[in-house]
Amino acid sequence: MKKIILSPKAPPPLGPYSQAVEVNGIIFCAGQIPLDHTGQNVTGDIRVQTEQVMKNIEAVLTAAGVTFKNVVKTNIFMTDLKDFASMNEIYGRFFPENPPARSTVQVSALPKGVNVEIEVTAVR
Question: Helix, strand, or coil here: 94?
């Protein structure tokens, strides 16, 4: 059975999708971009943007009843891989031990003109 996860502490979806969906104990989180809980862009460099993205992910995971320790896979989309080290520094603080598997790719553009989007998959 499919369970929809929604957190008021994360930005509302920009379209016809859910913040997260749980099926059989697997939580599939939609990609988060650096928006505040009202849906407004959070401005700043890649560190500021990554911090906001990770806080949004944390809010969704909390609403699902799990933490970053439950995350098994992340996908990161960046508009410029020259910012990788700075993004990675912030990202790494949320996974101090036993980090998940990860893919990181450069893309030509992201919604609302932001520079980073991160999606995660967690298990209960």
Answer: coil
Residue type for position 108: S
Could you list the residue range(s) of the whole structural domain that residue 118 is in?
A: 2-123
Q: What is the mean pLDDT of each run of 10 residues along the chain (124 residues)?
A: 96 94 98 95 96 98 98 98 98 98 98 97 97
Burial of 56 (0-12, 13-18, 19+ CB in 10 A): buried
Sign (positive or negative) of CA dihedral 38, 45, 68, 93: negative
Q: Taking the mean position of all CA atoms in its chain, how far away is CA 19? A: 10
Q: Give the predicted TM-score (pTM) of the model.
A: 0.96
Please give the tally of structural domains in the chain.
1
DSSP string covering 93-119: HT-SSSPPEEEEEE-S--GGG-SEEEE
What is the enclosing helix (H) or strand (E) of 27? strand 26-29
